[in-house]
Amino acid sequence: MMKDVKLYMETCQVCQRDKPRTQAPLRLLKPHPISKRPGESLSMDFMATMVTSKSGMRYVYVIVGRFSKYTRLVAMPTTAKTEYVIKLFKGNWVRDFGLPKFIASDRDVQFTSELWKAAVAEQGTQLQMTLGSHLEANGRAEQLNHAVQHLLRHYIKPNQVDWDDKLALIASLYSNVVHIATGVSPNSLLLTFKPRLPLDFLLPENQTSAGPGTLEFAYR
Predict the structure, then answer these.
(1) Is residue 6 classed as helix, strand or coil in its secondary structure?
(2) Contact 53, 67 (CB under 8 A)
(3) In what order do the strands lie in the sheet with 102-105?
(4) Mean pLDDT value of segment 149-160
(5) Would residue 42 be called left, alpha or beta, if left means φ above 0 and alpha means ψ between -120 and 50 degrees?
(6) Positive or negative CA dihedral for 152, 135, 179, 19?
(7) For residue 100, is pLDDT > 50?
(8) DSSP H helical ranges for 27-177
(9) Which of 34, 49, 162, 173 has the fewest CB atoms below 10 angstroms from its CB?
(10) What positions does the domain Integrase catalytic occupy (predicted)?
């Protein structure tokens, strides 16, 4: 099966056009230690889309759990102050999963502001900011950025102005796929059960049973 998949990928025009090659850094890695339970440690980043959507959004606020790999993708406008980022963080993560102990991020202006530092200090969260020479310390968010870009290319319109409408779909696709690091999907690990997927109804055991005589009538 793996041989067939590789052959298909090598001959797929969409895959060759949309998916770049990746290579591990040619230096020693210095990642942060992995947390011991879901929600304890997060990675954050801002991904620029270079295209302003029809609703005025320009950036994607990426939040990913470093243990479960569960992700939240939030559209942001071109000018987003630190107060707005704090509001998005509380509404899209803290409300559902509580306060993290650690947050890994780069040194974006919102993350280095005194207001952000004060807000996370009040909730007992420790900031773990990366250096320019060791971006892999926030590698989870960086890898997710690449995955989001690849998936968006398949679903957005040619003019790309609807990318923010697809973020919920992209986050669902990512969180429902088995992750190579954990062996289970992020949703299954975080929620402790496997959510019902849109294609599950195709499985014979999930299809609604037909009424008496329906099948016999169909085969006549």
Answers:
(1) helix
(2) no
(3) 71-77, 57-65, 41-48, 102-105, 126-129
(4) 85
(5) beta
(6) positive
(7) yes
(8) 82-89, 95-97, 109-112, 114-122, 139-155, 167-175
(9) 34
(10) 34-194
pLDDT in tens, 192-217: 877 777 666 666 665 555 455 544 54
CA 63/CA 73 separation, integer angstroms: 7
The DSSP letter of residue 202 is G
DSSP state of 211: P
Q: How confident is the model at residue 91 (pLDDT cuts 50, 70, 90)?
A: very high
Q: Residue 149: what residue type?
A: Q
Look at residue 148 in the predicted model and tell me its pLDDT.
87
pLDDT over threshold 50, residue 185: yes
* CB neighbour list of residue 67: distance below 8 Å, 6 or more residues apart: 34, 35, 36, 37, 38, 39, 40, 41, 189
**How many Å from the N-terminal Cα to the C-terminal Cα in the chain?**
38
Which of 25 and 74 is assigned the larger pLDDT? 74
Is the pLDDT at 105 greater than 80, yes or no? yes
Segment 33-59 mean pLDDT: 86
Q: What is the C-alpha to C-alpha distance for residues 187 and 193, in angstroms, rounded to an integer? A: 7
Give me the count of residues in the chain. 220
69: alpha, beta or left, given left = phi > 0 and alpha = psi -120 to 50?
A: left
DSSP letter string, 165-201 = GGHHHHHHHHHTSPPTTTSS-HHHHHHSS-PPPTTGG
pTM score of the predicted model? 0.73
